[in-house]
Amino acid sequence: MKPLINKQKVVFFTGAGISAESGLETFRDSDGMWEKIDVMSVASTTGWQQNPGLVLDFFNQRRQKMLQAEPTAAHHAIAELQAKYDVVVITQNIDDLHERAGSRQVIHLHGSVLCGRSSVHADRLYPISEKGIQLGDLCEFGSQIRPNIVWFGESVQNMEEAKRHVIEAGTVVAIGTSLVVQPAAGLLRYARFHANKMLITLDVGSQVPFGFRWIRAKASECTHLIKSL
Question: Active site includes 110?
Answer without folding.
Answer: yes
